[in-house]
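User: I'm putting together notes for a lab meeting next week and I want to include a structural view of one of the chains we've been expressing. I don't have a solved structure, so I'd like a prediction I can at least talk through. The sequence is below, exactly as it appears in our construct file.
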Amino acid sequence: MATTELTPAAERVLEVAGKLFYAKGIHAVGVDLIAGEAGVTKKTLYDRFGSKDALIGHYLRRRDKRWRAHVHAVVGDAGDTAPADGLLLVFDALDSWMRTMNPRGCAFVNAHAELPDGDHPGRRVIAAQKRWLRDYLRDLAERAGLPEPAKLAGALLILLEGATVAGSLDVVPGAVGSAKQIAAGLIGAQQNR
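Assistant: Thanks for the context. Below is the predicted structure for the 193-residue chain, given as structure tokens.
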């Protein structure tokens, strides 16, 4: 079932499940709680999604879609900035996302820790989300004419992921800003080659 064609009841289930999965953890949240909070029966939940595992996949795809739109909006709103500046704007996107949508860290990393089965539908969504971000960074680096876009994209992805973890744990104050400064140095080194 495509998430764009959900019934109103299915939308409520997905909205409630997303909030509960992120706030409490996937395994801590049962279908009884989701159905009750969404005001539907368990039968409706299963009729719309088939299983809790399928619902988890929908939740992660929905969250990924919102994250990608957020990144595109922040980077796209920059307009006339230099192409390499788009790479740094991804850090700004992460910073604003963490303040509003991501106080418990990356939903995908959290879910990955709870879904050890590599064949789980959620694991495929998680892997695709991380590959998308790496590829998006590589594309931005290519557009900026940087000499090693794939290598730079990998390094920036590591900085973004590390900043997400350190920031959500409040281990490093201003983690995203610090990661952005390191990223600026890496970008500058490539520009000076």
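A couple of points you could mention at the meeting. Residues 58-191 form a domain with the Tetracycline Repressor; domain 2 fold (CATH 1.10.357.10). The chain has nine helices and no strands.

User: Perfect, that's what I needed.
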